[in-house]
Amino acid sequence: MVRFLLARPIAVGMTFLALIVFSVIVFRTLPISLLPPIDVPQIVIKVSYPNASPESIEQNVLRPIRESMVTLNGLENMESKSGSEVGNVRLSFDYQTKMELAYIEVNEKIDRLTNGLPVDLPRPQVVRINTNDIPVARLQIIPKEGTDYVQVSLLTENVIKKRLEQLDGVALVDINGRQDRVITVEPYKSVLAGLGVTEDEVIAAIEAGNSDLPAISVEDGQFRYYLRLATRLETPEDVMALPVRTGDGPAVPLSKVARVRYELDRPTGYHLFRDREGLVVTIHKQSAAKMNELMPLVYEAVEKFETDFPQVDFELTQDQSMLLNAGISNLQTSLLFGGIFAFGVLFIFMGNYRTPIIIGISLPSSLIISFLVFYFFGLSVNVISLSGLALGLGMLIDNSIIVLDNISRKRREGLPLLEACVTGVNEVMSALISSVLTTLAVFVPLVFLSGISGALFYDQAVSVAAILSVSLLVAFILLPLLYRLFFQFREHVVEKEDSRFFMVLLKGYENVYQSIFRRRKLSLFLLFLLIPCMLLLSLLLPVEGLPPIEKHDLLITLDWNEPVNASQSKERIIALLESLQDGYVQAESDIGLRQFLLFEGENSIQQASLYLLFENQGQKEAQSKFISSHIRSRFPQASLTIKDAPNAFDQLFSSNLPYYEVRWKDLATKRPVDAAKMDPWLDELPITHWARGPGLQKESAVIFRVDREKLALYGLEVDKLLKEIQKLFGNYLITDIKRFGEITPIVLRPSSVDFQGLLRESYLYGEENTPYALSNFVRFSYDDHYKFVTADRAGIYQSVVVETDQPYVHDSHFRQWGNARDLSIDFAGQYFQDRETIRQLIGILMVAVLLLYFILAAQFESFVQPLIVIFTLPLGIGGAFLVLWLTGTSLNVMSAIGLVVMLGIMVNDAILKIDTINRLRVQYSAEGGGNRVKILDRALFHAGEIRLKPIVMTSVTTILALLPVVFSAGLGADLQRPLVFSVIGGLTIGTFTALYFVPLAYWFLARK
Q: Where do transmembrane segments lie in this chain (predicted)?
């Protein structure tokens, strides 16, 4: 086949050229994004129920929702959490679940539940989580001084949002910080009392004035018309003109008995940019959009906004495309330095400028053609798939060097150029195919990991398989073709193949080889002894999800744990920013309830989050300490969390679960255990280091108790009392003015007097309009109650978070503690998910090793020789662990990927070495070169000489190509550095293993 293709160089060349051109065209159509569009199998149902307690939301809303969701297909876990006025249910599904169908099914169940939920409850919002939900940027919209905030809110909602959504590639624009305008009605209580008018009569007058006819039509001859009232309310002036009936006198305009005006609605949340109040717009991209093309459009749109709306300041922040640009930059760096160092190393080893040029042509050709596979598999160009391509580049160089070196060796043996190309490729073809298959056997099974890791590995596995498959095509066809074209006019010229440097290296290799083989048993024993010693280094390595990236920004999460409103929370945040004295580059904060449609986190008025960007790491650490001391000294009850601001990777990999949580349920009452009973029980917990879970956290509240007997004595109705309390303390909605899609509520303005004064000054009217003060019927007390009610699919639970290194050793003690109090005990948390992932990983790696063994057994036609390759893997892993330990690097996702790459290259070298030894044994046996032992010694030694150059060259070129990342700075380098350390450590030991361990192990295991 190779001979047939090489005999038609023009046809083959044009075919490759056409493939490259077509690949370039296809590449322009591929979506470019930060992360692959992964359907995270989670759905969050958000509930907003104003003026409702956590217990009320749990009992009346969340419990019916949970019970209806139990039968969902693929549902793995269900958690709910209710707080004051808000609640949510988080549904977790199996990764094989079709989330489009699950989303539809959840919405259908919510619709069927509507009649069974409270009448005044807004429809629960269903949020589906996807990697595309992570915003690509945030647009700050800050009104200048003197600008009407409501007008800016309308401008953002009706103009800016729509113009951004019209950009190619934008899927959704989400807004936080809006403030709406309402018409407030503040009755003059003294005037009402003098006229003998009640608040209810004022409310009734407004409701009557804003009433509308139902669908009524009248006939006028042969025509039919629909009736409508012409007295619709539109402005506060219309409301003030409404007549209000007095006791016995004439009706008076409403303006005489109440103040009516436009006001901002009572805010439940704010957004601050630095210390200025404003709005923030998050921009979300479509899954098929190219981020590198979308972001310039966004910046261009913002420039137009600045020109069109000078009364508003605009600024783009937290641009996530920086991560993608870092990934692309790393790939470009790898290609550039890989090509330069490959050329330099080849020149040093071979003293031949044509061979490096051939490799220089083959590398970008393979990379470009790989994008065809992306197109046919529906992959996007993202950081994960790009890292897969970067992984395959090392093996691509490896294959190229091996093929070219073998062709050159055949030429030195005296074969004609065409014959040398054909024979050189055919000799290593089966070994290279096996090496690619073994690499895929190690890597591809990781796709079957459950959770987000398996979903991410899919893109990486396909990209690695693509570039390795293309590399074989290039190595078997394009490389020999280029070699023939470059050397066809020098067919009879003896090229200088080995440089002086290589001859010195070869001499040193031979001396070490002879020293080791003089003490074969001792040498092999020492090498096997190294395996457990180096693998034990893994116990010294810290384990992390992602490598620590030097970030200059912080995310501060605050929960005041006090009954403060959003305005007070805003004042505290502004005071904190002022205390920092501009010691930051950028600051933005979200306070109270978030208005984002896609926000699926915890929503509470007492919470606030603050994002801070600093100039350098030193400033960040200093200000972090200052903020911590500032908050803890002034607000000792506040819960404070300070951490690096999450980027898109962190948001995807982060978990809402605590590490280890002990849960209990009171199955008798199916309610939370009362605090008076629970607090003494908590003092008897069989562990000292623990923290209260959400279901045990407390907050202060005012408890109203109604004296029903006194109400009955005075002939008053409980409903009238409750309605009066709602008017006094709630955001009482009278009616809505609706016009052209804009809704303006008319609300009764709550008094700013403290609640005790209101109870004394407000009245219920009994028979003959006799007034009775509310304080006669309502008793109040201050009390601490549970802040949240937590539940899972089995019911309400309370929990503590265990804060020890080995929490599981206390499981039996916790069960005894629960049994003594008639509580059922259960355990949950990230610890159990991590343990399941490790169990799956071990199983998958065992399958991968088994696949590796089967492939090699078929390649070598031996059951023993594959064991030699498998024994080389622990040495390479140990070498990687050694370098990670010496450099203080953790074992994380990137260093684990580096291990896979390094093992692929190591396996490649070992397979080729064993394949060469086998061929030489057959050749020497046919030549009759002596007894079996001498033939084996000769084959082992000669194979080492033949494979020395490609083994050392591939290791050196790969290591040198990766070295620039070690000395680089920036986000991309921080991500890739653990991968580089793994590869460098593994290949350093792996090169020694391929040169000396493989022949030693072959001697003892396969000499018969």
A: 12-30, 331-350, 357-377, 383-404, 436-458, 464-486, 522-541, 841-860, 867-887, 893-912, 951-973, 979-1005
Total residue length of the chain: 1008
pLDDT tens-place string over residues 801-834 = 887 777 777 788 888 898 888 889 898 887 887 7
Tell if the pTM clears 0.85, that is, is over it: no
454 Cα distance to chain centroid? 14
Q: How far apart are CA 506 and CA 405, in angstroms?
A: 15
State residue 139 phi and psi, 5-degree precision. Answer: -105, 120
In a shared domain, residues 474 and 330: yes
582 and 519 in a single domain? The answer is: no
- How many other CB atoms are found less than 10 A from the CB of residue 224? 9
Starting at the earlier edge strand, list the strands of the sheet with 553-559.
276-277, 269-273, 586-592, 607-613, 553-559, 639-644
Q: Look at residue 220 and tell me if it is in a domain.
A: no
Residue 205 falls inside a structural domain: no
pLDDT in tens, 721-765: 777 777 776 667 778 877 766 778 888 876 666 667 777 777 777
Number of domains in the chain: 4
Do 580 and 685 reside in the same domain of the chain? Answer: no
**Among positive and negative, which fits the CA dihedral 106, 108, 113, 117?**
positive
The CATH number of the domain where 56 resides is what?
A: 3.30.70.1430
3-state secondary structure of 295: helix
Torsion of CA 432, 435, 436, 441, to 10 degrees: 160
For 583-630, the DSSP string reads: -SSEEEEEEES---TT--S---TTEEEEEEE-SSHHHHHHHHHHHHHH
Q: What is the dihedral of CA 787, 793, 796, 801, to 10 degrees?
A: -60
What three-state secondary structure class fits 382?
Answer: coil
